[in-house]
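Running co-folding for xanthosine-5'-monophosphate.
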Amino acid sequence: MTTQTEKLSNQAEALPTKPITKSLNRQMIVILDFGSQYSELIARRIRETQVYSEVLSYRTTAEQLRQLNPKGIILSGGPNSVYDDLAPKCDREIWHLGIPILGVCYGMQLMVQQLGGGVERAKRGEYGKASLFIDDPTDLLTNVEDGATMWMSHGDSCTELPAGFEILAHTENTPCAAIADHDRKLYGVQFHPEVVHSIGGIALIRNFVYHICDCEPTWTTEAFVEESIREIKAKIGDKRVLLALSGGVDSSTLAFLLHRAIGDKLTCMFIDQGFMRKGEPERLLKIFNEQFHIPVEYVNARDRFLEQVKGVTDPEEKRRRIGHEFISVFESESQRLGPFDYLAQGTLYPDVIESADTNVDPKTGERVAVKIKSHHNVGGLPKNLRFKLVEPLRKLFKDEVRKVGKAIGLPAEIIQRHPFPGPGLAIRILGEVTAEKLNILRDADFIVRDEISKWGLYNEFWQAFAVLLPIRSVGVMGDRRTYAYPIVLRFVSSEDGMTADWSRSPYDLLEVISNRIVNEVKGVNRVVYDITSKPPGTIEWE
Ligand code: XMP
């Protein structure tokens, strides 16, 4: 059986040792990942200070780092103990590169161990919040308040400092909570400055980035847009690019960016599966075609998709068939509109660091498509349809995509749109999908969106939608008995969709929505509210 520790280490093994950025003149902070769940978060925090940051594997060698020449290096936390046989270790030469290094938790323990100090299992591990008492308020801890709350999660502690190091701060249980060798610019913190519970964590990160590593705030949306347009133009030249538009923020931002770079060399294809929300396909076409003059090839495949899911009740089978049909339509339509040299994909940075298979063509060194973005939920494109890829968003986190979208003029309704699954309403109708049920769910879902927008609450929810259950219950309307479907309201708050909590929505809002659905949507006589968090529930019902 694989343990949690092994799993996390495997994930760290799969990370690249080479950066995705080609422009080496950009100032950057490299994070070496030792299997921490927070490595991505550290990268996001650094980027929030407008300094570019990438996560690389702990196996990245000192020589590779020397060539990359980052302004600073951060060693992440990790699930291991430094004295485990299989504990991931970094190249010992990195201590001699002359580049400032900050070790976080496991990263600090590794620094201490490799530089000749001592690390032992602590008498009392420290998990959760702890007050940080500052012994030396200079460089790393400037502007961090004495007694500030920091988030701890460690079973091991540093018991003896390596030569040249001194203590910057302690907590009640941890004498060496922050340490430094000022001359060599080597720093370590036992806590996690990157998590929101660490008050003053951001100040610490800023101190490291600006004062210790001497970075300038060059990672801005404007700089990214300018640089991307230049890169896209250089890469594509007068070749043709195909983009599958879904209407979400990623593919729409991609379309705007590519259109600005290469104009009519871009073909946007929108496959209407018939599972979108009420009015959405029409709205999308209006925005692109009329408002922004970015022509979209509209493919009406509604009947084909409905035929595919006819009689299918198993959720996995439903997803599989929709995915399969998507490929088939995509294939024939791209042939009809083609030939194309490139396929544009809305791959984001988390997709890059979380997927081991980067599928590089050995001849050209370029990434090739064997997977369409997971939101189309397909296993892979057929072998004979291997496009070269253009992935201009691959350096970005989701919040950075929204900023780019805004900067290049994407309307707020697309930027702020709640996440919507590739198979759409088909996985919000439990069991068999029929045209009748799609109409019912579309109308109910419209009322949900209409009311939460009227109440000014749309942006308060991560997602807020309706689900149709394939059962019926008894009700009464006027003097007549009814026997009709229930609608489930699923309103959740979340940071990233990985975990979620059910939203404590105002009762008055729920009342209005419930009344409207039961009165306006024929076929529904009951509305219920889902009060399950994720885990153990998922956000979607299928
Ligand atoms: P679950 O239901 O797994 O959903 O808690 C987590 C997030 O992912 C979205 N989701 C999908 N997104 N294709 C997508 O692009 C899909 O097939 C899919 N299924 C779920 C879901 O809406 C939520 O935001």
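Result summary
Residues 375, 377, 419, 421-423, 463, 497, 534, 538-540 surround xanthosine-5'-monophosphate (CB under 6 Å).
The first strand starts at residue 28 and ends at 33.
Job closed.
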